[in-house]
Amino acid sequence: MTTTFFLVRHAAHDRVGTVLCGRLPGVRLGDLGKAQARALAQRFAGESVASVQTSPLERAVETAEPIAARLGRPAEHSEDIIEIDFGAWSGMSFDMLSDDRQWSAWNSSRSTCRPPGGETMLEAQTRIVRAMEQLRILHTGRSVVLVSHSDVIKAALLYHLGMPVDSYMRLEISPASISTLVVGDWGSKVLRMNEVIAP
To answer: What is the pTM of this model?
Structure first.
């Protein structure tokens, strides 16, 4: 028996691509993001989903709630799928970070580097994979939606693809996208990656 996972990146907010928001509070969906969240809810309308799990950050919750409402399920908060803790970099613009040697090192070797005061990508990978394994056992033969963040979703996919976290740049995970995989006792298989849902 397998469990199907839909890994959903939160919808767009007005700082996507310009600011490393990390775990900053108060980062909410803009008008485009709200429309994307409604489109995601419509996309899942025909799916039989046992559980909707969400990162507790506002942009993820605001993406998960329409999906959960459409499915008649609660949106359950999970610390295991929260954004990577970027420590001192949180809230900095990518332009500001571009001159930081530690930032360059982090992006060259995610397997060995740590954001200042933050966590490694391997630590983020461990927690999302652990959460997925617990959910797999709990919801065998069913489907689960996880609403999370780009790098955390990449970490999960890289694990299930048998690839190192340093390969993260090979994957594209767009806002309001879905990546689908099945996981069983025998292993796992990625079915679709970065299925973008347009409003």
So the answer is: 0.96
